[in-house]
Amino acid sequence: MTDWARLAEASGNVFATPEWVETWWRHIGRGHAETVQLDWVVLPLELRRLGPVLVARVAGHGPGDELGPVCAPADRTRAAERLHGLRADVFLGEQLPGDVAWPGRVLRRGGSPVLRFAGRSWDEVLASWSSNLRQKARRDWRRIELHPRLADAATLDRDLELLFRLHRARWRRETGFTRHEAFHRAFARVALERGWLRLWIVEVDGVPVAAWHGFRYAGAESYYQAGRDPAWDRYSIGFLALLHSIRAALEDGATEYRFLRGGEEFKYRLATDDPGLVTVALGLTPLGRAALAAGVLADRLRMTLRGRG
Asked: What is the tens place of the pLDDT at every residue in 25-48?
């Protein structure tokens, strides 16, 4: 195991792995690559210019739901202090763990809810939810017989086709996920080889009606994307696929279930806590600090973030 892979595992973050970053560079990255590496931290960067200002961004941005220095959680504060020494004018830190006091101007905050299993059984987890939610879960399970199956090497290409088709059917428009379809297909193959991929295809009477896409890494299950056939919405197919993925993770020995980026209300009905995410811009040179102080660069960075480019 390389030092980077070892630190990624210590971080517990699949988006910190060298496999994620290497695949991202092949499909999405456009700037100059630079990696800061010590024995206790790795920081892979994309360096690009916005006008005269050299901006350093953590490689993997856009589709990455949690980024930042790759290190053990206990070393994140020490890593934050090291950011001042980067060779750029501005550091744009996107989707950084929200439980650290990162230096710089906060551009936005977001949710990243987690359901911690804490050694509980499925019945104990279910009992911790509201009575309305418990009743809905039990009622919907009885209404329809689902047949979930996991994608494997023999079915992966076909199952990815189903995932993207059902995702588009759910949203009826292009999304950030579908815009980077080639990247996601490539990383899914790598993740399957590593044993990280969890791609559930949910069928009813042999017909695929929902897909749940995530990762199992370092003991945590992460819910990344999903899709469903809107014709089955009256059966709460998306909710049932989600419940199945949570129960399967718990019964397989995962320690927690991560809902990842986004503060949607349904996540908080199921989660136990939310460490949150934060995006910051840090001026590193007089030019960078002046550009941020003038406000023009900060506005441009916010536009970049909205475009997830």
From this structure: 999 999 999 999 999 999 999 999
**What pLDDT shows up at residue 306?**
62
* Cut 0.85: pTM above it: yes
pLDDT in tens, 75-113: 999 999 999 999 999 999 999 999 999 999 999 999 999
pLDDT for residue 250 = 98
- Three-class SS of the chain: CCHHHHHHHHHCCHHHCHHHHHHHHHHCCCCEEEEEECCCCEEEEEEEEECCEEEEEECCCCCCCCCCCECCHHHHHHHHHHHHHCCCCEEEEEEEECCCCCCCEEEEEECCCEEECCCCCHHHHHHHCCHHHHHHHHHHHHHCCCEEEECCCCCHHHHHHHHHHHHHHHHCCCCHHHHCHHHHHHHHHHHHHHCCEEEEEEEECCEEEEEEEEEEECCEEEEEEEEECHHHHHHCHHHHHHHHHHHHHHHCCCCEEECCCCCCHHHHHHCCECCCEEEEEEECCHHHHHHHHHCHHHHHHHHHHHHCC
Give the C-alpha separation, 57 to 301, whole Å: 11
pLDDT of residue 170 exceeding 50, the answer is: yes
The structural domains of the chain, ordered by start, are 3-110+276-307 (3.40.630), 114-270 (3.40.630.30)
Average pLDDT over residues 202-219: 97
Mean per-residue pLDDT over the chain, rounded: 94
